[in-house]
Amino acid sequence: VHLVESGGGLVQAGGSLRLSCAASGNIFSINAMGWYRQAPGKQREFVAIISSGGSTNYADSVKGRFAISRDNAKNTVYLQMNSLKPEDTAIYYCNAPDVYSGTSYSNYWGQGTQVTVSS
């Protein structure tokens, strides 16, 4: 199973970006899908998560600015990021913690996509 992120880039403060993450491979079903980020010199931190039924949860730092969504038919999760701040600068990673292959559950990570917000 592979998770491939796209949509990162350089944006000015106050701007918007939309990240995408598509899962492919031996997939029977995917429960939750989420996003994490890691800024230079810091630990990876939770950003947002969405269940297969559409329930969402966000880190306090992004509530009201970011929106997570998914297309189950495409095994794809999105992260709409608005009102971006310089402190949102990080590598953003897609995560699917419980991908069911038909016989077992596994946790997968994408390779990351860089988001840089200039002041």
Report the average pLDDT across residues. Answer: 97
- Count of helical regions: 0
The largest pleated sheet is described as: 8 strands, mixed
Structural class: mainly beta
Rg, Cα atoms, Å: 14 Å
How much helical structure, as a percent, in the residues?
under 10%
How many β-strand stretches?
A: 12
**End-to-end Cα distance:** 37 Å
Short description:
0% of the residues lie in helices and 57% in strands. By secondary structure, it is mainly β.
Tag the structure with descriptive keywords:
single chain; 119 residues; mainly beta; 8-stranded mixed beta sheet; 57% strand
Describe this structure in words.
The protein is mainly β and 119 residues long. Helix content is 0%, strand content 57%. It has strands at residues 2-6, 9-12, 17-24, 29-30, 33-38, 45-50, 56-58, 66-71, 76-81, 90-100, 105-109, 113-118. Strands 2, 4, 5, 6, 7, 10, 11 and 12 form an eight-stranded mixed β-sheet that branches. The protein is elongated and about 50 Å long. The N and C termini lie far apart (37 Å). 30% of the residues are buried.
